[in-house]
Each structure stands twice: as C-alpha cells, then as structure tokens.
Amino acid sequence: MLSSLLLEITGSVSAIGAGLGAGIAVFGAGFGIGKIGSSAMESMARQPEVADKVQTGMIIASALIEGAALFAIAVCFIKG
Amino acid sequence: MCRENNSMYQILKSTFTLLIAILGFSFASFANGHEESHGADTTNEFNATEMILHHIADSHEWHIATIGESHVTIPLPVILYFNIDGRTGWEFFLSSQFHAQGFPHEDDHRAESLPVDGFKLDHHDHIYYEKDGKPYAGAQIIDLSITKNAASILLSAVILLFIFFSVAGGFKKNQGRAPKGIQSFFEPLVIFVRDQIAIPNIGEKHYLRFMPYLLTVFFFIWVNNLLGLMPSGANASGNIALTLTLAVITAIITNVSGNKDYWMHILWTPGVPLPLRVILLPVEVLGIFIKPTALTLRLFANITAGHIIILSIVSLIFIFKNSLVAIASVPFATVMNIMEFGVAALQAYVFTLLSALYIGTAVAEHSHGHDEHHH
C-alpha cells in the first residue's frame, strides 16, 4: 500500500507523521493567535484608554497558546 | 489573615525547600539533542541535518571560526567524576587532548578521538570509557565539564554582573539627579519589570520580595538569547536543561510561598459545587507540574526553532550547490535573524510575566464573601 511504498523510500513513516503533526499544530496556533490579535486590535481601536491592559492580556494569551503548540512540536521533533 | 503555628509552618516550608534543593542537585545529566535518522554519512557530502544539529547541540569545545583550513577553537576543561569497577576519582583535562593531532572539522568529525586516560569522545559528544578497544558499559561517568553552554552561561553571568554593578554604582552616585551612561538604559527596563510585570501580577504588598528573582530571570534569559544569536554564539537558552532549571526554580518559589488561599484553591476550590471540586482536584494538581513544563518547552522550542530556521535557510545554498540561491537566501536569513532579536526579548518578557503571574496566584490575598471558615 502507500505506506509500505513510502517506507521503502524514506525508511521511516514516522517522519511523515512528525511533519504533518507539526504543520497542523502550527496551523491551529496561528489561527488562534490571529483571532486574539484581531480582537485585541479591535478593542484597542474602540477604547484607546485600555490599550495597555489589552496588550498585556494579548501577549499572555498568545504565549499560552504558543506553549501548547510547542508541546506538539516538541513531540513531533522527538518522534520524527 | 492569621496563621496559627507560624513557626511550624516556617519549619515545614524550610524542610520542603531543602528537600527539593537536595533532590534537584542529586544528579547531573547532559542534555543534548539526539540525532536519529540522519544516517551515517561516510562521504564528504554536505549533510544539512547533521550540520544544524551540531550547531544547536552542546559541545566540549567552543568552535569560533574556520579560516581557510585552520579552525579557531577554544578548548574547554573536561571535568569527570568516574566510578570504574570500584575505582573512583576525578579527571581534569582540556578537551583539546581528545584531538591532539589538530581539531577536526565538521566533515571529518568521525575521526577517532584520542583516549585520555581511557576516556574518549563519541560522535554525539558524550564521554565514554574504552577498555580493550570497546566502550565499557560498566563505567559510571558523571560529566561535569565546562561545556560550550556552561561557558556561555558563565559569560552571560559576568556580563550581567558588570552591567548591574555599573547601574547600581550610577544610581548611588546620581541620587536625585538624572541617570547617566549605562544607567539610563537599564533603569527604565528595571522599572518596566517592576511596574508592568511585578506590581500588576503580584500586588503592591508582596512584589518587592520577588523582584530580585524576576529581574534576574528577565535579564538572564534576554542576555543568553542574544549571545546565542551572535556569530559563534552558544545555544544556551535552547538547552532544555537550562530552561528546565529556570522553570523548576519558578515552581519552587511559587509553591513554597503559597499561602493558605493558594493551596485551598488547588485542593478544595471554594465557591464551586462539590462534584466540580472533585474533578478540579486532579486537574489543578497536574497543573502544578504542567505550568513549569510549559515554561520550559516554550523557551526551549522558540529559541531552538529560531536557530534551526536560520541555519536551514543558509544551508539551502549548500544543498542546491549554487551561489545564486544566496540572492534569496541571505536576505531571508537576515530578516529571520532580526526577527529572532525580537523573539529573544519577547521570550524573556513572557517567561518573566508568567513567573510573576504564578507567583501572584500563590501570594494573592483576597476575601471570599462565601468562604465560611475564613478568619
């Protein structure tokens, strides 16, 4: 089947899984952080006085999301 | 809030801290990226994976530059404590003795290392003991060498001491006047850490206790990240052992300074229906360990991934064996490098911010309207 064919060529199917996993993880992180960024921009435009607080919250939230994505990338790094 | 048996609490706290400190120092291991599937290349072909992993990994010597055929390398001291069949002892020698005939280039690093008192260096830069021409598994070696990362950390410590003694001296001298010189750059940063990171998260009452730690972590990570971006810099903050240590220190500080409210929130969350409390207990207890893990992985992966990206873009030139690729590759690598300077500062800020957040939850004092046994 396709897997056995690829196994002969690459010698390791886990590499495909690793690449795919890392790609999907980054896609999820990018999407999530994009949403945070857009809502942060919007709220800063609506109410400039709270821009500082919104920015801090935005950085915290994106750091946490990125941490989760990096969990996945670390696993892919090890397994691939 | 009152604490009955204040001295008992203090004794328990100190014992717990001592226990954690002893456990934390009771082993030394060599954190290194592993190379698994890049294959043993016996030709002199350019192997991008190998080159990149070699640049990220730790090493027993500090390779600075390659000028033509000669390699400018700083040999670093090797410090071993060994236990071979009951014979114990220490070994001190410079890592240049492993390659007394000249430092091997990355291409021919498969050249055998010379034995030094029976100790040899393998391809993954680990030290093993050779007996009768074979690696001897019965030898227990604790490798406490000053490797490239350790030397880089020491260098960043020297830099930080120099900077902050100057700043402190300037602060004393310029009392009541405008800051001058290096003080005028670092004082706003210190105030930034105090006003934007420490006070909002920890609160006016307790922030001063934790300021030394937060400032240390902030500038230490920032300087280490920057040193890693310099040419021939060491990838210190991309070493998971360093980030793990910093995260563990944050965890120790958080949990040791946790007050009664903190532990109540974790073990028996007030103001929440009973079934949810039972569910929350394992989740919160796991969270005590997951938070430092996230801190570790976030910093490690961000810095290491940045280095890998830059190295990969540059090695594209060598993979395609065409200097025209450089027209696209070099500007891209330059842009990525500039972005990595931003990431260096941002990751230091995020680590410090999250540490302050966790410490803040530990020392937070607030009154629960619905807490029955509150005093």
Describe this structure in words.
The complex is a heterodimer of chains A (about 80) and B (about 375). In chain A, about 90% of the residues lie in helices and about 0% in strands. With about 80 residues, chain A is an all-alpha fold. Chain A has one domain: F1F0 ATP synthase subunit C (F1FO ATP Synthase, Up-down Bundle). In chain A, helix 2 packs antiparallel against helix 3. Chain B contains 9 helices and 8 strands. In chain B, the strands form 3 sheets. Chain B has a 3-stranded antiparallel sheet, with no helix packed on it. A 3-stranded antiparallel sheet of chain B has the order 5-6-7, with no helix packed on it. A two-stranded antiparallel sheet of chain B has the order 1-2. Classes of the chains: A mainly alpha (about 80), B mainly alpha (about 375).
Overall tally of structural domains of chain B: 2
Rg result of chain A = 19 Å
What is the count of DSSP helices of chain A, taking H or I runs of 4+ residues? 3
Q: Give the radius of gyration of chain B.
A: 25 Å
Largest sheet of chain A: none
Q: Which percent band covers the strand fraction of chain B?
A: 5-15%
Largest sheet of chain B: 3 strands, antiparallel
Order of helices and strands of chain A: HHH
**Pair with the most extensive interface?**
A-B, 15 and 17 residues
Strand residues, percent of chain A: under 5%
Overall, the morphology of chain B is globular
Tell me which oligomeric state these chains represent: heterodimer
The CATH superfamily of chain A bears the name: F1F0 ATP synthase subunit C
CATH class of chain A: Mainly Alpha
Mean pLDDT value of chain B? 83
What topology, given as strand order, has the largest sheet of chain B? 4-3-8
Number of helices of chain B: 9
